[in-house]
């Protein structure tokens, strides 16, 4: 602070000296006398000293005021810190008091628990004494009864248990047989009723998808443009679409041949655009095919959304909707996959309603049960397990996931709707006109099925019935026991599953019959 005051004073002195020098120069320039200059200088010096003293006093006063203000602020800060310290001390004291109180309560509870434990120990000793006395009285009572009856307690107990056991087994067997027979009659009757009503209430199309598409032309002159010079155009179309174009003598028509309906649809739409445009050359063909593929992707999504809307299914993931749309261009044994899935969904909803279950959940599972047949990438998983994996990935209900994975018995059925999906899938695929096979292949498959069963020892006859969906095996009763029949049924089913290719599932029934024939004369 003193350094600040001295610097201020020196600054004032320098200011005054500068003023004096200026005035001296001014007096010299105006040619005043030396005396006048001296008197003037003394006067100026006096004034400067007076100003310096005045300025010094003002600065000292300002410094004192600032010092007083800083001191007050410091004291205020110290007071606030002191208050905070006192508050912290008070809180610590309160916590100490609370902890002391808790310690006292804990000690009190420990003492009370010890007292209770002592009381319990005394009561336990009394109870043990009473129990010992009671056991002695009971043993004495039993000895007296045995002496009167002439039979030990263990023998009497054994005889009573055996008699009650035999009576209970007899009654249980009779009751069990009655319940089983009654349940079978009611279950078969109710099941037939539900299945028949479900099938009758669902109208399904029976049109079969072909492996070819006929593209109609306005005139045969366009065939030359489609073929192109030296066949360049037709080769470009086949390379871009993967579809074989058959140009023969059929008037005003070209046949598109491919096992993939999606490729045939891309080729058909591309040809339609090229013919309408008139510009048909390899570069234009590739451009139109690419545009058609993008357009068909949008169409696939639109088909999926329209299908979900028509069936009243909401909240499907966008990828699942796209897969549903792709089903429109897939077929299974000649049956359109989307039509099969829609039909299965309607069947599931009706059957679930008949059984008092959730029809919306069943319809959802029915629509999605074959999404594993339209994957983006080929995998080694079966379509049922792959479909379950995709449904789980896109957040479907666990019951729907289980129904998809279990509809070919490749996963354990954990929900009630799972067997409904399996039954409705079989109904949709097995009805007349739904699927087709070449007659020779079908007959050969039936023969292979019967020959497979006849190869086992002890098999007398084998018949493939219900269009090859059930195999009935009749065995010789002298060579095959009941236990062997169950084992034989399992082995035949496993061999069919591993060695043969077949749609749906095949039921294997082994029949063992023992006949005793006599003639009364």
What does the model show?
The protein is mostly helical and 521 residues long. Helices cover 69% and strands 7% of the residues. The protein contains 15 helices and eight strands. The protein has helices at residues 2-29, 34-149, 153-201, 221-227, 232-241, 261-277, 282-311, 318-326, 337-354, 359-368, 383-393, 398-406, 417-430, 439-454, 482-499, and strands at residues 212-216, 244-246, 253-257, 331-332, 335-336, 459-465, 470-475, 507-512. A three-stranded antiparallel β-sheet has the order 1-3-2, covered by helices on one side. A three-stranded mixed β-sheet has the order 6-7-8, with helices on one face. Helix 6 packs across helix 7 (282-311). It is flat. The chain starts with a helix and ends in a 9-residue tail after the last strand. 21% of the residues are buried. Residues 203-210 have low confidence and may be disordered.
Question: Which helices and strands, and how do they pair?
Answer:
Elements: H1 2-29, H2 34-149, H3 153-201, E1 212-216, H4 221-227, H5 232-241, E2 244-246, E3 253-257, H6 261-277, H7 282-311, H8 318-326, E4 331-332, E5 335-336, H9 337-354, H10 359-368, H11 383-393, H12 398-406, H13 417-430, H14 439-454, E6 459-465, E7 470-475, H15 482-499, E8 507-512
Parallel strand pairs: 7-8
Antiparallel strand pairs: 1-3, 2-3, 4-5, 6-7
């Amino acid at each position: 602070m003193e350094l600040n005051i001295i610097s201020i004073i020196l600054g004032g002195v320098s200011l005054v000296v500068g003023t004096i020098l200026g005035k001296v120069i001014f007096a010299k320039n105006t040619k005043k006398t030396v005396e006048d200059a001296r008197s003037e200088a003394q006067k100026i010096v006096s004034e400067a000293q007076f100003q310096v003293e005045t300025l010094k006093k003002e600065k000292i006063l300002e410094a004192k005021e600032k010092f007083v203000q800083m001191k007050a602020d410091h004291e205020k800060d110290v007071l606030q810190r002191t208050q905070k310290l006192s508050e912290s001390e008070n809180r610590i004291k309160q916590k100490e008091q609370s902890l002391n109180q808790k310690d006292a309560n804990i000690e009190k509870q420990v003492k009370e628990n010890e007292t209770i434990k002592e009381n319990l120990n005394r009561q336990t000793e009394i109870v043990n004494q009473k129990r010992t006395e009671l056991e002695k009285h009971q043993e004495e009572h039993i000895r007296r009864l045995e002496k009167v009856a002439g039979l030990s307690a263990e023998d009497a107990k054994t005889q009573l248990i055996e008699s009650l056991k035999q009576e209970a087994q007899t009654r249980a067997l009779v009751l069990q047989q009655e319940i089983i027979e009654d349940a079978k009659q009611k279950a078969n009757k109710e099941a037939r009723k539900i299945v028949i009503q479900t099938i009758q209430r669902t109208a399904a199309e029976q049109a079969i998808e072909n492996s070819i598409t006929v593209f109609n032309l306005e005139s045969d002159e366009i065939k030359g443009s489609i073929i192109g010079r030296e066949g360049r155009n037709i080769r470009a179309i086949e390379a871009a679409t993967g579809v074989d174009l058959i140009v023969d003598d059929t008037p005003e028509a070209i046949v598109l041949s491919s096992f993939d309906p999606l490729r045939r649809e891309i080729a058909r739409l591309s040809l339609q655009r090229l013919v309408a445009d008139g510009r048909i050359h390899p570069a234009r063909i590739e451009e139109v095919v690419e545009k058609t593929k993008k357009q068909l992707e949008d169409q696939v999504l639109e088909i999926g959304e329209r299908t979900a809307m028509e069936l009243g299914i909401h909240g499907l993931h966008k990828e699942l909707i796209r897969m549903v749309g792709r089903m429109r261009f897939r077929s299974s044994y000649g049956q359109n996959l989307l039509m099969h899935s829609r039909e299965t969904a309607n069947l599931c909803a009706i059957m679930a309603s008949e059984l008092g279950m959730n029809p919306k959940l069943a319809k959802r599972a029915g629509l999605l049960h074959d999404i594993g047949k339209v994957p983006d990438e080929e995998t080694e998983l079966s379509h049922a397990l792959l479909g379950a994996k995709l449904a789980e990935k896109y957040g479907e209900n666990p019951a729907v996931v289980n129904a998809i994975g279990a509809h070919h018995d490749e996963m354990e059925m954990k929900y009630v709707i799972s067997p409904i999906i399996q039954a409705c899938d079989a109904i949709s695929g097995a009805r007349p006109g739904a699927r087709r096979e070449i007659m020779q292949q079908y007959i050969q498959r039936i023969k292979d099925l019967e020959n497979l069963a006849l190869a086992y020892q002890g098999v007398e006859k084998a018949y493939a019935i219900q269009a090859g969906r059930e195999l009935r095996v009749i065995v010789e009763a002298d060579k095959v026991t009941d236990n062997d029949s169950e084992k034989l049924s399992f082995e035949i089913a496993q061999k069919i599953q591993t060695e043969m290719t077949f749609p749906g599932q095949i039921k294997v029934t082994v029949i063992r019959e023992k006949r005793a024939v006599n003639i009364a004369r």
